[in-house]
Amino acid sequence: MTTDIVAPPRAKLYDKLLLKLARKAQSWRKLSVLTAAVGVLECTLNIWQFIKQPDLKSRTTRRRQLWIDQAKAANAGKTRIALVTGGNTGLGYETAKALVEAGYLTIIACRSVGKGQEAVDRIEKSTGIKGMAIVMSLDLSSQENIKAFIRDFKDLNYPHLDVLVNNAGVMDIPFMLTKDGYEMQFGVNHLGHYVLTLGLLQQLNKAEQGRIVILTSGAMFSSSNIRYDRLQSSVGYSRLGHYSYSKLANMLFIKALDRRLREQAPSSKITINGCHPGTCHTELFRSSKYLGPIQAPLALVFRSPLFGAMSSIYLALAPPGHELESTSGEYFFDQAPREPNPAVNDLEQQDLLWQKSVEFTGVDFKL
User: Fold this and answer.
1) Cα–Cα dist 354/349, whole Å
2) Which residues contact 10 (CB under 8 A, 6 or more apart)?
3) Among 5, 51, 193, 364, which residue's beta carbon has the most beta carbons within 10 A?
4) How far is residue 220 from each of residues 18, 99, 103, 139, measured CA to CA in Å?
5) Which of 273, 338, 272, 278 is nearest to 310 (CA)?
6) What local confidence, expressed as pLDDT, does residue 3 receive?
7) Which has the closest alpha carbon to 365: 245, 264, 266?
8) pLDDT tens digit string along 171-217?
9) What residues have CB less than 8 Å from 164, skipping those under 6 apart?
10) pTM to 2 decimals?
11) Closest CA to 21 of 34, 33, 36, 39
């Protein structure tokens, strides 16, 4: 997959600072402060990158089109199916749009069918491609709804599922519980996608090479473990701290599922990777007490949704024969493998997350 990827000037410094922050998280109790520090760091380095790479927008556009053209050529004459959660807006919309342009029948899974249809209409208008994007209702805060969605998807009788992009998420919200009684950020960002992913593994396994892409975040660096005792009540609730837990859970899940695929289903060609979009100007911040009211000026220091979506587009569209075909269990940022929070490599933490996820959902690995 020919690209013109060049590591941004911020890369080494960013990684060094985030790993220092992760070490600090082992003893620092104010997770909200550390998570906010990640955001400030990202915005500062965004400005640096914008200055050092003034051609960033044009380079991003060229790179995106190159990946689409390569995927179309590799998949000519083949049926390709993709599913993007939260594909109606922001990063998910940009990812869904690119998949449609690359020839994938793309399911936009979101809570509001109306908003999803608006996204489909925008995609069709901007690309001129009709009938390649459809909407399905999905509420990631309800395990019953997710399981119904999985049944409905299977009833469509698609031959396989090539790409699953777990993009939807919530951040910095007041304390509330999912319909199943778990803190909303952890419940949606991790548990909801956990149930969805395991429920669709068989369809992914039928693909030539099923790919799972999970959007995580640099916020995972601000926690060293997950307080499972703080997921069912408001005691000890932190809007940013619990977001950090959910993003650490995303990467622990990626590592844990990759291990199970390699150990229990060695013939499977399913890959699972995570990617961090950077701090982007999307609806994710709409609930923030401090950032929500100042969205317009933040656009000057935040990444655009297209730039933020580039890693998920890259992981989804790499054609057969590309090195990503055998890359799994990794963390990507700016379309390059990077060092995650060291805590995600802890096998005990991976297995504890898996144990708790089974306990909270009743769903386990089966292929």
Assistant:
1) 9
2) 45, 48, 49
3) 193
4) 10, 27, 34, 24
5) 278
6) 45
7) 264
8) 999 999 999 999 999 999 999 999 999 999 999 999 999 999 999 99
9) 82, 83, 196, 197, 200, 204, 210, 211, 212, 213
10) 0.91
11) 34
Joined tokens for residue 311: 């890693």
**Cα–Cα distance, 132 to 258 (Å, whole number):** 30
Q: Which residues of 309-333 are buried (b: 16+ CB within 10 A; e: fewer)?
A: bbbbbbbbbbbeebebbebbbbbbb
298 HSE (CA, 13 A, CB side)? 23
Element housing 31 (H / E): helix 31-52
SS3 at position 49: helix
Mean pLDDT value across residues 284-293: 55
Higher pLDDT, 83 or 26: 83
Question: Which pair of structure tokens corresponds to residue 176?
Answer: 């509330």
Amino acid making up residue 292: G
Identify the three-state secondary structure at position 156. Answer: coil
Predicted local confidence at residue 9, as pLDDT:
52
CA distance 96 to 89: 9
Nearest alpha-carbon partner for 165 in 220, 108, 249? 108
Nearest partner of 251 among 193, 206, 336, 317, judged by Cα:
193
What is the pLDDT at residue 287?
Answer: 54
Nearest partner of 196 among 270, 134, 257, 138, judged by Cα: 138
| Best CA proximity match to 280, nearest among 315, 241, 309 | 309
Any bridge partners for residue 336, and if so which?
Answer: 333
Calculate the dihedral angle through the C-alpha atoms of 106, 112, 116, 119, rounding to the nearest 10 degrees: -140
**Which alpha helices (DSSP H) does 211-268 contain, by range?**
239-264
- Domains in the chain (CATH in brackets) are 11-361 (3.40.50.720)
Q: Which of the two residues, 241 and 250, has the higher pLDDT score?
A: 250
User: 192 has which bridge partners?
Assistant: none
Where does residue 339 fall: left (phi above 0), alpha (psi -120 to 50 degrees), or beta otherwise? beta
The residues pairing with 280 across neighbouring beta strands, listed in sequence order, are: 303
Q: What distance in Å separates the CA atoms of residue 294 and residue 41, rounded to the nearest whole number?
A: 18
